[in-house]
Amino acid sequence: MTEKENKKSVSRRTFLKTSTLVVAGSAIAYGAVSVPLLRKDRLLLRPPGALGEDIFLASCIKCGQCLQVCPPQVIKLAGISQGFGIGTPYIIPREGACILCSGLPCVLACPTGALAHELSLGKDAEMGLAVISGPDTCLSVRGVNDLVYRLQNLHQKSTSSPDQTELKDILTSLIKRLTEDEKKAWQNRFSLPDISDNSLLTISRQIKNPDLEWIIKFVKSSGQARKACQVCLEECPIKDEKTIVFVSRTHPDTGKEYIWPSVRKTCVGCGVCEEKCPTPAASITISPRLKWSEKPAGNQTGNHNPA
Ligand code: SF4
Ligand code: SF4
Ligand code: SF4
Questions:
Q1: Distance from the CA of 50 to the center of ligand 1, in angstroms?
Q2: Cβ atoms 276, 231 nearer than 8 A
Q3: 29-36: long-range contacts, CB 8 A cutoff, minimum separation 24
Q4: Which of 73, 99, 125 is at the close of a domain?
Q5: N or C terminus of the chain with fewer C-beta within 10 Å?
Q6: 14/9 Cα distance (integer angstroms)
């Protein structure tokens, strides 16, 4: 290659390198700018006490103190895919909700007051509002008992031995709801020494699919199975004031009766109901920062929120 040809080849390589870097750089820059713009309208669920979104974004120094002291470890720090406010704290309720723990340690730990220090009680948190987002899947609306539903799903998924974690979770809830007579029937079926909750729970280790079939029949014939799902209310950490009431309604088109979980003003949007709802996609979800005065209007399926 002549000296002239060599120079030409070098400058071509340099051009290609430079233009590749420019294109890649532009793509990254475009991504960094466009992702926040695309996500601008999607609010994240902030920890309790968070100031209004704009002031919160200006006040939060992204120190991560709140997530370090969070007992259930549910606070995450936003990445680029969350849009505005990279490094700010947020919660995904379905993956782990805020349990409004005593003393609200995240609020106390916040050095800037981005989580307002005036907030001391979980029942005043105002993180958002729960809304029935799956009226067609909600087990209450369908008149289905949550434990029967979960046991049947577990049975369908299992080959010989059911998943232990799911089974123990179901049994723990079931045992709490059994009457003394039902506990005795359980004791006889599995030859247990007594009817204490611990003793009843030990059967999880020996359960195979045929035993699961017996348990499903047992639960279906028990008194508690006549009650449709109310998990969202049962798991709600606001215990002293009913956050959800189950109201009887009639469908305007079909005339069919159903029970509607109606969220009340006392809901603070912590997300525990969304986390615990047993349907594959939660039938109740949190609208971050939604105020009671802005709640969705009633609709044909009964999305009505009495005060
Ligand atoms: S403790 Fe306060 S300032 Fe620090 S990340 Fe959490 S909200 Fe932001
Ligand atoms: S937890 Fe509540 S919203 Fe979810 S299925 Fe049960 S009643 Fe419906
Ligand atoms: S209904 Fe209860 S559990 Fe659900 S968000 Fe409201 S306060 Fe939390």
A1: 9
A2: yes
A3: 31/80, 32/80, 35/80, 35/81, 35/83, 36/80, 36/83, 36/84
A4: 125
A5: C
A6: 9
For ligand 3, whether the C-beta of 231 sits within 6 Å is: no
Is 269 in the same domain as 138? yes
Which amino acid is residue 37, in one-letter code? Answer: L
Question: What residue's CA is closest to ligand 2, atom 6?
Answer: 229
Same domain assignment for residues 57 and 104: yes
Residues 63 and 120 reside in one and the same domain: yes
> Residues 13-34: pLDDT tens digits?
443 343 334 333 443 443 443 3
Question: Does 5 have pLDDT greater than 70?
Answer: no
- Closest residue (by CA) to atom 2 of ligand 2? 232
pLDDT tens, residue by residue, 204-248: 888 888 888 989 998 898 877 778 999 999 999 999 888 999 999
Structure tokens at 185: 């029937």
Question: By residue range, what is the domain housing residue 277?
Answer: 131-143+229-294
Question: Which residue's CA is the closest to the ligand 2 atom numbered 8?
Answer: 138
